[in-house]
Amino acid sequence: MTDTSVKPELEPPTGPAPDQLVIEDVVVGDGAEAKPGGTVTVHYLGVDYESGEEFDSSWSRGQSISFPLGNLIKGWQDGIPGMRVGGRRILTCPPALAYGPAGGGHRLSGRTLIFVIDLLKA
C-alpha cells in the first residue's frame, strides 16, 4: 500500500511522452470528491518527463497548498475532478495541458510534466 503521508518518489518514465492527459490512480481515496471549478487542498510533486528532474514540490516546502481549480493548468483542471480526499493520482500532462508550446514564456513551456497529487481537502 502506498503511504500518502510521505513525499512520493517516481521512477523515471520510459518511452515517448504521451500527447494526451494520462490519469493514473495510485490510491483511491474515500473522502469528499473534487468538483470541477472547486477549491482543493493538495500536496504535490512535479517532475519533468524527459529529464526525470523534480521542478516543484509542496512536500519540499513542507506545506500543502489550496487553490481554485479554475486558476490552474488545464491538466489539473481536467485531471483532479473526480478524485476523492485521501487519494493519490499521477497526472502526465503534455505541453498543451501544462504551460503551452516551447517559447511560450514560462520556463516549463514545451515540456511534458508529471504531477503526483495527494488530495487533502475538496
TrEMBL record:
Residues 1-10 have a biased composition (Basic and acidic residues). Residues 1-21 are annotated as: Disordered. InterPro entries: PPIase_dom_sf, PPIase_FKBP_dom. Its EC number is 5.2.1.8. One of its GO terms (molecular function) is peptidyl-prolyl cis-trans isomerase activity. Pfam families: FKBP_C. Keywords: Isomerase, Rotamase. It catalyses: [protein]-peptidylproline (omega=180) = [protein]-peptidylproline (omega=0). Residues 37-122 form the PPIase FKBP-type domain. The keyword Protein biosynthesis does not apply. It comes from the Bacteria. Belongs to the FKBP-type PPIase family. This is Peptidyl-prolyl cis-trans isomerase. The lineage of its organism: Bacteria, Bacillati, Actinomycetota, Actinomycetes, Micrococcales.
